[in-house]
Amino acid sequence: MPDPSPPNSPPGPLSSTDPSPPNSPPAGGLGDLVSYAGKKVVLTGGASGLGAAAVELLARSGCTDLTVLDVKEPTGPATRFIPADMSDPDSIDAAAAEIGGGVDVLFNNAGVAGVHAGDFVLRVNYLGLRRLSESLLPTMNSGGAIVNTASIIGAGWRDRLDVINELIAIEGWDEAVEWMSEHSELVEAAPYDLSKELVQVWTMHSSHRSLTRFGVRTNSLCPGVLDTPLIVDFRRQATEKVIDWAIEQSGGIISPEHMAAPLVFLGADAAAALNGANVVADRGFSAWMTTDHVDYSALA
Ligand SMILES: NC(=O)c1ccc[n+]([C@@H]2O[C@H](COP(=O)([O-])OP(=O)(O)OC[C@H]3O[C@@H](n4cnc5c(N)ncnc54)[C@H](O)[C@@H]3O)[C@@H](O)[C@H]2O)c1
Questions:
Q1: Probe target for ligand 1 pocket from 42, 44, 48, with the most ligand atoms within 8 Å of CB
Q2: What are the pLDDT digits (tens) for 243-263?
Protein backbone atom coordinates (compact mmCIF):
# COMPACT_ATOMS: atom_id res chain seq x y z
CA MET A 1 0.00 0.00 0.00
CA PRO A 2 1.53 3.40 -0.96
CA ASP A 3 2.35 5.85 1.81
CA PRO A 4 -0.24 8.64 1.50
CA SER A 5 1.73 11.14 3.59
CA PRO A 6 3.91 13.64 1.71
CA PRO A 7 7.66 13.54 2.40
CA ASN A 8 8.64 14.88 5.81
CA SER A 9 5.12 15.31 7.16
CA PRO A 10 4.27 13.04 10.10
CA PRO A 11 1.00 11.12 9.67
CA GLY A 12 -0.67 12.88 12.57
CA PRO A 13 -0.09 14.78 15.79
CA LEU A 14 2.53 13.48 18.20
CA SER A 15 -0.15 12.29 20.59
CA SER A 16 -3.91 12.29 20.83
CA THR A 17 -3.73 15.36 23.08
CA ASP A 18 -1.14 17.21 20.99
CA PRO A 19 -2.95 19.70 18.71
CA SER A 20 0.16 20.67 16.74
CA PRO A 21 -0.43 20.52 12.99
CA PRO A 22 1.65 18.13 10.87
CA ASN A 23 5.20 19.30 10.27
CA SER A 24 5.21 21.86 13.06
CA PRO A 25 8.18 21.45 15.40
CA PRO A 26 7.39 19.87 18.79
CA ALA A 27 6.79 22.39 21.56
CA GLY A 28 8.65 22.37 24.87
CA GLY A 29 11.93 20.81 25.87
CA LEU A 30 13.15 17.23 25.95
CA GLY A 31 11.40 16.67 29.30
CA ASP A 32 8.00 17.18 27.65
CA LEU A 33 8.92 14.83 24.83
CA VAL A 34 9.64 11.95 27.18
CA SER A 35 6.60 12.52 29.40
CA TYR A 36 3.94 9.80 29.60
CA ALA A 37 1.36 12.08 31.24
CA GLY A 38 -2.06 11.47 29.68
CA LYS A 39 -0.97 8.38 27.75
CA LYS A 40 -2.70 5.02 27.88
CA VAL A 41 0.06 2.42 28.05
CA VAL A 42 0.07 -1.39 27.86
CA LEU A 43 3.10 -3.49 28.72
CA THR A 44 3.52 -7.27 28.63
CA GLY A 45 5.92 -9.06 30.97
CA GLY A 46 5.84 -6.36 33.66
CA ALA A 47 6.17 -8.65 36.68
CA SER A 48 9.93 -9.18 36.45
CA GLY A 49 13.24 -8.00 35.04
CA LEU A 50 13.21 -5.39 32.27
CA GLY A 51 9.42 -5.07 32.26
CA ALA A 52 9.27 -4.45 36.02
CA ALA A 53 11.97 -1.77 35.68
CA ALA A 54 9.99 -0.19 32.82
CA VAL A 55 6.83 -0.13 34.98
CA GLU A 56 8.74 1.86 37.63
CA LEU A 57 10.22 4.26 35.06
CA LEU A 58 6.90 4.80 33.29
CA ALA A 59 5.25 5.70 36.59
CA ARG A 60 8.10 8.15 37.33
CA SER A 61 7.61 9.57 33.81
CA GLY A 62 4.04 10.63 34.52
CA CYS A 63 2.12 7.56 33.34
CA THR A 64 -1.12 7.13 35.29
CA ASP A 65 -2.78 4.59 32.98
CA LEU A 66 -0.53 1.55 32.78
CA THR A 67 -1.93 -1.93 32.16
CA VAL A 68 0.37 -4.92 32.64
CA LEU A 69 -0.29 -8.27 30.95
CA ASP A 70 1.64 -11.16 32.46
CA VAL A 71 1.27 -14.70 33.76
CA LYS A 72 2.49 -13.35 37.14
CA GLU A 73 1.06 -10.42 39.07
CA PRO A 74 3.37 -7.38 39.04
CA THR A 75 4.35 -5.75 42.33
CA GLY A 76 5.30 -2.39 40.77
CA PRO A 77 3.15 0.74 40.29
CA ALA A 78 0.98 -0.48 37.39
CA THR A 79 -2.59 0.79 37.49
CA ARG A 80 -4.15 -2.41 36.15
CA PHE A 81 -3.14 -6.06 35.88
CA ILE A 82 -4.72 -8.40 33.36
CA PRO A 83 -3.56 -12.01 33.73
CA ALA A 84 -2.65 -13.12 30.21
CA ASP A 85 -0.65 -15.90 28.66
CA MET A 86 1.12 -14.70 25.52
CA SER A 87 1.38 -18.27 24.23
CA ASP A 88 -2.42 -18.62 24.11
CA PRO A 89 -4.48 -16.80 21.43
CA ASP A 90 -7.71 -16.93 23.46
CA SER A 91 -5.99 -15.40 26.46
CA ILE A 92 -4.50 -12.63 24.27
CA ASP A 93 -7.86 -11.90 22.63
CA ALA A 94 -9.62 -11.71 26.01
CA ALA A 95 -6.95 -9.32 27.32
CA ALA A 96 -7.18 -7.13 24.20
CA ALA A 97 -10.96 -6.90 24.60
CA GLU A 98 -10.54 -5.90 28.25
CA ILE A 99 -7.95 -3.23 27.35
CA GLY A 100 -10.27 -1.65 24.77
CA GLY A 101 -9.32 1.15 22.37
CA GLY A 102 -7.35 4.36 22.66
CA VAL A 103 -3.97 2.84 23.55
CA ASP A 104 -1.08 5.27 22.98
CA VAL A 105 1.89 2.98 23.57
CA LEU A 106 2.17 -0.81 23.56
CA PHE A 107 5.32 -2.44 24.92
CA ASN A 108 5.57 -6.08 23.80
CA ASN A 109 8.17 -7.15 26.31
CA ALA A 110 7.20 -10.60 27.68
CA GLY A 111 9.62 -13.31 26.63
CA VAL A 112 10.99 -16.74 27.45
CA ALA A 113 14.42 -18.28 26.77
CA GLY A 114 15.15 -21.25 24.55
CA VAL A 115 14.92 -23.83 27.31
CA HIS A 116 11.31 -24.62 26.44
CA ALA A 117 9.79 -26.43 23.45
CA GLY A 118 10.55 -24.50 20.26
CA ASP A 119 6.93 -23.85 19.30
CA PHE A 120 6.20 -22.46 22.79
CA VAL A 121 9.14 -20.04 22.53
CA LEU A 122 7.95 -18.84 19.12
CA ARG A 123 4.37 -18.49 20.33
CA VAL A 124 5.30 -16.30 23.34
CA ASN A 125 8.11 -14.29 21.73
CA TYR A 126 6.70 -13.77 18.24
CA LEU A 127 3.17 -15.01 17.55
CA GLY A 128 1.68 -13.64 20.78
CA LEU A 129 3.46 -10.31 20.35
CA ARG A 130 2.11 -10.05 16.82
CA ARG A 131 -1.45 -11.01 17.78
CA LEU A 132 -1.69 -8.47 20.59
CA SER A 133 -0.25 -5.73 18.35
CA GLU A 134 -2.67 -6.48 15.52
CA SER A 135 -5.62 -6.59 17.93
CA LEU A 136 -4.86 -3.22 19.49
CA LEU A 137 -3.41 -1.34 16.48
CA PRO A 138 -6.65 -0.40 14.65
CA THR A 139 -7.92 1.49 17.69
CA MET A 140 -4.61 2.94 18.87
CA ASN A 141 -4.22 6.71 18.88
CA SER A 142 -2.39 8.25 15.93
CA GLY A 143 1.01 9.44 17.15
CA GLY A 144 1.36 6.36 19.33
CA ALA A 145 3.97 3.64 19.31
CA ILE A 146 4.54 -0.09 19.48
CA VAL A 147 7.84 -1.12 21.06
CA ASN A 148 8.97 -4.73 20.80
CA THR A 149 11.67 -6.17 23.02
CA ALA A 150 13.89 -8.12 20.64
CA SER A 151 17.54 -9.02 21.34
CA ILE A 152 21.00 -8.72 19.80
CA ILE A 153 20.67 -12.50 19.38
CA GLY A 154 18.21 -11.76 16.55
CA ALA A 155 20.84 -9.98 14.45
CA GLY A 156 21.36 -13.08 12.28
CA TRP A 157 18.04 -12.68 10.43
CA ARG A 158 19.76 -11.87 7.12
CA ASP A 159 21.13 -15.43 6.93
CA ARG A 160 17.62 -16.91 6.67
CA LEU A 161 15.38 -14.06 5.60
CA ASP A 162 13.54 -16.29 3.11
CA VAL A 163 12.35 -18.70 5.76
CA ILE A 164 11.53 -15.86 8.18
CA ASN A 165 9.47 -14.11 5.50
CA GLU A 166 7.70 -17.39 4.79
CA LEU A 167 6.49 -17.61 8.39
CA ILE A 168 5.70 -13.89 8.58
CA ALA A 169 3.50 -14.22 5.47
CA ILE A 170 1.25 -16.63 7.40
CA GLU A 171 -1.44 -14.56 9.08
CA GLY A 172 -3.43 -17.18 11.00
CA TRP A 173 -2.31 -18.47 14.42
CA ASP A 174 -3.16 -22.13 13.74
CA GLU A 175 -1.56 -22.03 10.30
CA ALA A 176 1.63 -20.55 11.77
CA VAL A 177 1.71 -23.24 14.47
CA GLU A 178 1.25 -25.86 11.75
CA TRP A 179 4.20 -24.32 9.80
CA MET A 180 6.27 -24.65 12.96
CA SER A 181 5.50 -28.35 13.30
CA GLU A 182 6.34 -28.86 9.61
CA HIS A 183 9.69 -27.08 10.21
CA SER A 184 10.37 -28.65 13.61
CA GLU A 185 14.05 -29.26 12.95
CA LEU A 186 14.64 -25.54 12.30
CA VAL A 187 12.35 -24.43 15.12
CA GLU A 188 13.86 -26.75 17.76
CA ALA A 189 17.50 -26.05 16.78
CA ALA A 190 17.68 -22.54 18.31
CA PRO A 191 14.15 -21.31 19.04
CA TYR A 192 15.16 -18.21 21.00
CA ASP A 193 17.46 -16.97 18.22
CA LEU A 194 14.76 -17.61 15.61
CA SER A 195 12.09 -15.92 17.71
CA LYS A 196 14.14 -12.74 18.09
CA GLU A 197 15.08 -12.75 14.39
CA LEU A 198 11.33 -12.90 13.72
CA VAL A 199 10.72 -9.98 16.08
CA GLN A 200 13.36 -7.86 14.32
CA VAL A 201 12.01 -8.61 10.84
CA TRP A 202 8.38 -8.29 11.99
CA THR A 203 9.25 -4.87 13.48
CA MET A 204 10.56 -3.65 10.12
CA HIS A 205 7.75 -5.31 8.15
CA SER A 206 4.85 -4.12 10.32
CA SER A 207 6.26 -0.58 10.71
CA HIS A 208 5.03 0.33 7.22
CA ARG A 209 1.37 -0.51 7.79
CA SER A 210 1.34 0.70 11.40
CA LEU A 211 2.58 4.16 10.45
CA THR A 212 0.95 4.73 7.07
CA ARG A 213 -2.48 3.41 8.07
CA PHE A 214 -2.68 4.19 11.76
CA GLY A 215 0.01 6.79 12.47
CA VAL A 216 1.63 4.41 14.95
CA ARG A 217 5.40 3.89 14.96
CA THR A 218 6.83 0.39 15.43
CA ASN A 219 10.38 -0.14 16.67
CA SER A 220 12.28 -2.73 18.65
CA LEU A 221 14.93 -2.58 21.34
CA CYS A 222 17.70 -5.17 21.06
CA PRO A 223 19.33 -5.52 24.48
CA GLY A 224 22.62 -7.20 25.27
CA VAL A 225 22.95 -9.46 28.34
CA LEU A 226 20.73 -8.23 31.19
CA ASP A 227 20.87 -8.91 34.90
CA THR A 228 17.36 -10.34 35.18
CA PRO A 229 15.94 -13.70 36.36
CA LEU A 230 15.98 -14.88 32.72
CA ILE A 231 19.78 -15.07 32.85
CA VAL A 232 19.43 -18.41 34.66
CA ASP A 233 17.68 -19.87 31.61
CA PHE A 234 20.16 -18.22 29.21
CA ARG A 235 23.01 -19.93 31.09
CA ARG A 236 21.24 -23.25 30.46
CA GLN A 237 20.47 -22.32 26.85
CA ALA A 238 23.88 -20.99 25.77
CA THR A 239 26.19 -22.45 28.51
CA GLU A 240 27.86 -20.63 31.43
CA LYS A 241 31.02 -20.19 29.39
CA VAL A 242 29.38 -18.30 26.51
CA ILE A 243 27.30 -16.04 28.77
CA ASP A 244 30.29 -15.22 31.02
CA TRP A 245 32.35 -14.48 27.91
CA ALA A 246 29.67 -12.17 26.47
CA ILE A 247 29.34 -10.31 29.78
CA GLU A 248 33.11 -9.96 30.11
CA GLN A 249 33.60 -8.82 26.50
CA SER A 250 30.80 -6.24 26.74
CA GLY A 251 32.29 -4.68 29.87
CA GLY A 252 29.78 -6.09 32.37
CA ILE A 253 26.16 -7.12 32.64
CA ILE A 254 23.54 -4.41 32.06
CA SER A 255 20.97 -3.67 34.79
CA PRO A 256 17.26 -3.78 33.91
CA GLU A 257 16.97 -0.20 35.19
CA HIS A 258 19.54 1.02 32.66
CA MET A 259 17.83 -0.90 29.83
CA ALA A 260 14.38 0.43 30.78
CA ALA A 261 15.47 3.95 29.77
CA PRO A 262 15.95 3.27 26.03
CA LEU A 263 12.86 1.03 26.06
CA VAL A 264 10.66 3.78 27.50
CA PHE A 265 12.33 6.36 25.22
CA LEU A 266 11.26 4.41 22.10
CA GLY A 267 7.61 4.71 23.12
CA ALA A 268 7.87 8.44 23.87
CA ASP A 269 7.20 11.41 21.56
CA ALA A 270 10.95 12.11 21.62
CA ALA A 271 11.37 9.08 19.33
CA ALA A 272 8.83 10.39 16.76
CA ALA A 273 11.37 10.16 13.91
CA LEU A 274 12.12 6.49 14.58
CA ASN A 275 10.12 3.82 12.79
CA GLY A 276 11.07 0.30 11.72
CA ALA A 277 14.31 0.54 13.69
CA ASN A 278 15.88 -2.31 15.64
CA VAL A 279 17.79 -0.27 18.20
CA VAL A 280 20.83 -2.06 19.58
CA ALA A 281 21.46 -1.40 23.29
CA ASP A 282 24.43 -3.52 24.30
CA ARG A 283 27.07 -0.94 25.22
CA GLY A 284 28.97 -1.65 22.00
CA PHE A 285 29.25 -5.44 22.05
CA SER A 286 27.68 -5.95 18.59
CA ALA A 287 29.68 -3.07 17.12
CA TRP A 288 32.87 -4.55 18.55
CA MET A 289 32.07 -7.99 17.12
CA THR A 290 31.48 -6.41 13.70
CA THR A 291 34.73 -4.42 13.80
CA ASP A 292 36.96 -7.13 15.27
CA HIS A 293 37.36 -5.70 18.77
CA VAL A 294 36.22 -8.85 20.57
CA ASP A 295 38.58 -11.48 21.96
CA TYR A 296 37.23 -14.98 21.24
CA SER A 297 40.13 -16.86 22.88
CA ALA A 298 38.14 -17.68 26.05
CA LEU A 299 35.69 -19.67 23.89
CA ALA A 300 38.37 -21.94 22.41
N1 LIG B 1 17.79 -11.03 30.08
C2 LIG B 1 18.49 -10.81 28.98
O3 LIG B 1 19.73 -10.97 28.95
C4 LIG B 1 17.79 -10.35 27.73
C5 LIG B 1 18.56 -9.97 26.63
C6 LIG B 1 17.92 -9.56 25.47
C7 LIG B 1 16.53 -9.52 25.41
N8 LIG B 1 15.81 -9.93 26.49
C9 LIG B 1 14.35 -9.88 26.38
O10 LIG B 1 13.85 -8.99 27.35
C11 LIG B 1 12.48 -9.31 27.64
C12 LIG B 1 12.28 -9.31 29.14
O13 LIG B 1 13.07 -10.36 29.67
P14 LIG B 1 13.73 -10.30 31.12
O15 LIG B 1 15.17 -10.53 30.93
O16 LIG B 1 13.26 -9.11 31.85
O17 LIG B 1 13.14 -11.66 31.74
P18 LIG B 1 12.21 -11.95 33.01
O19 LIG B 1 12.06 -13.42 33.04
O20 LIG B 1 12.73 -11.25 34.20
O21 LIG B 1 10.83 -11.26 32.60
C22 LIG B 1 9.98 -11.82 31.63
C23 LIG B 1 8.55 -11.47 31.97
O24 LIG B 1 7.71 -12.07 30.98
C25 LIG B 1 6.66 -12.77 31.65
N26 LIG B 1 6.21 -13.90 30.83
C27 LIG B 1 6.89 -15.04 30.53
N28 LIG B 1 6.14 -15.86 29.80
C29 LIG B 1 4.95 -15.24 29.62
C30 LIG B 1 3.75 -15.59 28.95
N31 LIG B 1 3.59 -16.78 28.35
N32 LIG B 1 2.72 -14.71 28.97
C33 LIG B 1 2.85 -13.51 29.61
N34 LIG B 1 3.96 -13.14 30.27
C35 LIG B 1 4.99 -13.99 30.28
C36 LIG B 1 7.29 -13.26 32.96
O37 LIG B 1 6.31 -13.61 33.92
C38 LIG B 1 8.12 -12.06 33.34
O39 LIG B 1 7.38 -11.10 34.05
C40 LIG B 1 12.23 -10.66 26.97
O41 LIG B 1 11.54 -10.46 25.75
C42 LIG B 1 13.63 -11.18 26.69
O43 LIG B 1 13.67 -12.08 25.62
C44 LIG B 1 16.40 -10.32 27.65
A1: 48
A2: 999 999 999 999 999 999 999
